[in-house]
Design goal:
Blueprint lengths: L14 H4 L4 H11 L5 H4 L4 E6 L11 H14 L3 E6 L16 H14 L4 E6 L4 H12 L3 E5 L6 E3 L2 E3 L3 H11 L5 H8 L14 H12 L14 H20 L3 H4 L2 H13 L5 H13 L5 H9 L15 H6 L2 H8 L16 H5 L23 E6 L2 E8 L9 E9 L2 H7 L12 E4 L20 H4 L7 E4 L11 E3 L19 E5 L4 E5 L2 H10 L10 H9 L19 H7 L6
Parallel strand pairs: 1-2, 1-3, 3-4, 9-10, 10-11, 11-12
Antiparallel strand pairs: 5-6, 7-8, 8-12, 9-13, 13-14
Helix pairs in contact: 4-10, 5-6, 6-9, 6-13, 9-12, 12-13, 12-14
Bound molecules: FE2/S2 (inorganic) cluster.
């Protein structure tokens, strides 16, 4: 049966645009035909939007036009009608001050583009860190059938016989340069070896983590997260996803039916098992908020305690995403941790997660370990609380130094990013390897935008003494490629008067990861009097999107979404039927 004669086609959303025999129907059809389509190619067929975050300003997503062509082939082959459209794209390396300032803007762009147009389903093309959560958030709010195709990781970096992981090894070697142990010539050579192809970062950074999370949520076809970007199987998967989107349109299989509370549990378990990025916590809380599903930070901690890290990938382990793919990738991880998962969770395939991974296999036990012999006994990220972080903070214990997981040290305080940049390498800075570096005013409102500044550099004079790690604490985020004993997402942030705002040089701070504690060892009356004397700084933005951001951004424990975007609002059906084009 063709899609046009399928009885389910009469209920398609796009029929409100193209199915009418009145003057509006003529207008919608005639104006689309201006693009050169004859009536026969779209009449009565499911319209599949291809939501493309392609941009030459975002190298990680620069190959997505080619991926979109593969999606179109699949849509045509399955009897659908593909229409590709652009949205804002967020590239980590070039966009300032931080892509996180714009994640919600992209989510709004995605949501409104989907809702406003005659689409029956949408294929989401993402890649770089924030593009994946922004599309999942937008699709969750628009709630028409959606399937995601991540762009895939780059090929592994190669330098003089050594594999280089994006970000992680760049940071490691930069510290060698600063310590005087690596030459400028070698450093320049690395620049041309570390990013070898299209695709996103090669380690289990935020982009890889969010692609895995999308797959564990059930929003992609199995295997979508880890096939390298230049691998032909990436395009074949895009083609199959396009075909599947046509079926999903007819089945009316929506994101709210896939991204359920069980799917969120599965995504958190997967995140812990792969040693995923700390950023995943903020993004998952934001996605859950769009779906109206409560997701307190305690849930991450609860699942972290009972989910071992089994993916041996940088920055927590040794290998890169290309190795991960060849070892069996995320399906092999999910199969291994299947006793911990809700296997009955529905997915975009129309089958359950359990059915999707039934035939998954592991082909390299060095890369993907077992539950019985894990890389680490507990999950990668954990949530801390205490008088320094009453609403929570996050640490990636899998990429931290074991000897610093329980530590007490004297605070060395930087008031903001500029202060830190100006003084961190000052030979007179009063710091030693037991100090705790504290960075304030880098949270959602503080920086603003919560940039990835939490990976404070080790002061040069300590680097030269061979110090490789110290406890660092901030209200910022860190890149998923970061490593070290770094506490981030401290909430409430300093800029809204959280206790971080009143930490002074010389205060003692205690970190106890096992007990999940982060404490400022200052008598309570003293802490109260400091907080009472605290005054907020003038807002950084007074107009435009920046002002909207400052007026509505939520704290890290609530996912940094805008307060007015959470929960479910007007349905897409109402939007489709309520408004007619007044121009006709
Ligand atoms: Fe895009 Fe790392 S810069 S994923």
């Amino acid at each position: 049966m063709s899609t046009q004669t399928d009885p389910r086609a009469s209920r398609l959303r796009s029929r409100h645009w193209f199915g009418k025999r009145d003057r509006w129907g003529l207008g919608h059809r005639a104006w689309l035909r201006a693009e050169g389509f004859s009536e026969m190619v779209f009449e009565g067929k499911p319209v599949i939007g291809i939501c493309n975050s392609w941009s030459e300003l975002n190298n990680c997503n620069a190959h997505l036009r080619q991926v979109a062509e593969a999606v179109k082939r699949g849509v045509w082959a399955a009897g659908g009608f593909p229409l590709e459209f652009p949205t804002i794209s967020l590239g980590e390396m070039l966009m300032k001050p931080t892509t996180m300032l714009f994640r919600n803007l992209m989510a709004m762009d995605v949501e409104e583009c989907i809702r406003a147009h005659p689409l029956d389903a949408v294929v989401l093309l993402c890649g770089c860190d924030k593009t994946t959560p922004a599309q999942l958030m937008g699709a969750a709010s628009a709630d028409i059938p959606a399937i995601m195709v991540p762009g895939g990781p780059m090929l592994s970096g190669q330098w003089r016989g050594t594999e280089l992981g994006s970000g992680t090894d760049a940071r490691r070697f930069w510290e060698e340069v600063r310590a005087g142990r690596m030459t400028e010539e070698d450093w320049c050579e690395i620049e041309s070896c570390i990013s070898r192809s299209s695709g996103h970062c090669t380690v289990m950074g935020t982009a890889s983590t969010m692609a895995c999370i999308a797959e564990a949520l059930g929003m992609t076809l199995p295997g979508a997260a880890d096939i390298p970007a230049p691998d032909s199987r990436r395009l074949a998967l895009a083609e199959t996803s396009g075909a599947r989107a046509v079926e999903m349109a007819l089945e009316d299989l929506r994101p709210s039916m896939v991204m359920t509370a069980k799917a969120l549990d599965n995504a958190i378990r997967a995140d812990m098992a792969i040693g995923g990025s700390t950023n995943a916590i903020v993004h998952l809380v934001a996605i859950a908020g769009r779906l109206g599903i409560p997701l307190p930070l305690e849930k991450f901690d609860e699942l972290s305690r009972t989910t071992p890290v089994i993916a041996n990938l940088k920055p927590s382990g040794k290998f890169l995403m290309e190795d991960f793919c060849y070892a069996g990738g995320l399906p092999a991880v999910l199969k291994e941790i299947s006793p911990l998962l809700h296997l009955d969770a529905p997915t975009v395939t129309g089958k359950s997660l359990g059915e999707n991974i039934a035939r998954a296999g592991c082909y390299n036990r060095e890369v993907i370990k077992t539950l019985a012999d894990p890389l680490q006994p507990q999950g990668g990220t954990v949530v801390l609380r205490g008088n320094l972080a009453p609403l929570g903070a996050v640490i990636k214990q899998s990429a931290a130094s074991a000897h610093l997981l329980k530590h007490q040290g004297r605070a060395v305080v930087f008031e903001n990013g500029e202060d830190m940049a100006a003084r961190i390498d000052d030979p007179n800075l009063d710091v030693d390897e037991n100090s705790v570096l504290v960075l304030k005013n880098t949270g959602p409102k503080g920086a603003p935008g919560m940039p990835e500044w939490g990976h404070l550099p080790i002061p040069k004079k300590l680097l030269q003494k061979g110090v490789k790690d110290m406890v660092r604490i901030s209200d910022a985020r860190i890149s998923g490629t970061s490593f070290g004993t770094i506490v981030v997402h401290v909430a409430p942030e300093a800029a809204v008067g959280g206790p971080l705002a009143v930490v002074k040089d010389g205060d003692m701070i205690e970190l106890d990861v096992e007990a999940r504690r982060l404490e400022l060892i200052v008598p309570e009356p003293e802490l109260k009097s400091r907080l009472a004397a605290w005054k907020p700084a003038a807002p950084y933005y007074t107009r435009g999107y920046g002002k909207l951001f400052l007026d509505h951004i939520l704290q890290a424990d609530e996912g940094c979404d805008f307060d007015f975007l959470r929960g479910r609002t007007e349905s897409s059906e109402i939007m489709a039927t309520k408004f007619r084009n007044p121009g006709m």
